Amino acid sequence: MRKTLNPTKTVHILLTFLLLATYGLWIGLGNRKENMVLAYSTTCPKEIANTPECLVYLQKQKEMIDKDKKNFSQNLSNEQYQQLSLLEKINYLDSQISAMERDIDALEVEMETKNVEIRILGKEIVETENNINTITQEINKLDNSIKKRISISYKYSFVTPVEILFENSNFENLLRKLKYLSETKRKDKELMEQMANQSKVLKQEETLLSEKQRSVERKRQQIEEEKTEQFKLKDQMAAQRSERASLYAESRRREQALLAQLDAARKAESSVEASIIKYIQDHPETMVNSGTVVAGSYIGQMGSTGCSTAPHLHFTIEYTSQPIGYASINPWGGYLKKGPDYWAIYGGWTYYNIHSGSFVTPLTGNAFLTQDHHRGWSGGAPYAVDMSSSDGTATYVRAVKNGTLYKGTEPICGGKYAKVVHSGGIESFYLHLK
């Protein structure tokens, strides 16, 4: 039986094409800004250098970069999510392609089977034609014999028994001639019957030959139809593979463009922060020591005071009703983000990069994790984290959110700290300041 493509499967394939084409149009007409690496100003214009306006200008540049970073990160997450959806569609296309490949294989088997049948019928047709030739020759021989006998019978058909009697005075000759005439009639009858039988067989063989020839033509026509269907399936399969590769390649290209933008924003942020740090170093009066601060305000410098063996920042979040540094709130619960990228892997430890969440990162430069969850210095809950930065000893600490700043020295080891009380009943704590 000749297989045909399932109509439901065809509809599914067409719908999939429409979905993929729509997705392709969407990503093709997306925000052109995502294909550009933006340029940022990381230093103050000459006319405001060494003035308070310079710090304001740099802070605004940093805010713009932070905003772009968040947008790039969000767009990157969206693109990666779209890739998951696209991969599901690609997997569906792969299953359709596999089904088409099976249909093509089945058609090839059917065509080869029909070719074998045609070869067998070809041999049978040759045998049938040989039989027809043999029967025709036998009929021709019978026909010649019958014609000869009819000629003799015709000759004696006008001689009556009385004439034979008068012609043959010898009784023995008379009997012989009568017997010969009787035998001639019997033989003529047998020949006529043989000829009729052979003619019947000939007609049957000719009918069989015609049926086999028609069967061969039908099978050849079916093979041509199946070849046409096979070519159609192969064209559809090639189109799906091309569409699949094109869409995924476009998505990957967009992802790489977003990664490049994010990387450029991070580098620009690092340069702006370096400019801010230099300005603060040149104008120390700009450092906030107490009072109202906004997210990103510089509130100190990373150090190693108190119970510390190397410069780093001990950071916690807790409720204002708890002791400072109690570490009762997990910073990875949406406040900050850990990884999945990392600064380095050394000694089996992965130094995951730290990114902004609802809080800005508390260190300038590229902040990375040096110790994950552990208990705070006051022996509280186990959600304290340690971090450092690529800026090294030049790293500055900044407020993670708007609030009120307080500074002091913890009583156990004498480490210098900063605390920012935020709205909503929470506070952030920064320990080991220089």
Tell me the domain tally: 2
The helix/strand series, from N terminus to C terminus, equals HHHHEEEEEEEEEEE
**What is the straight-line distance between the termini?**
86 Å
The description of the largest β-sheet is:
7 strands, antiparallel
- Cα-atom radius of gyration: 51 Å
Question: How many β strands by DSSP?
Answer: 11
Which residues sit in consecutive blocks of at least 5 with pLDDT less than 50?
A: 1-34
The number of helical segments is: 4
Helix content: 55-70%
Query: What do the pLDDT scores average to?
Result: 77
Judged by helices, strands and strand pairing, the structural class is alpha+beta
**Strands of the largest sheet, in order across it?**
1-9-10-11-3-7-6
> Approximately how much beta-strand content do the residues carry?
15-25%
Choose one word for the global shape: rod-shaped
Features:
disordered N terminus; 2 domains; 7-stranded antiparallel sheet; 434 residues; 4 helices
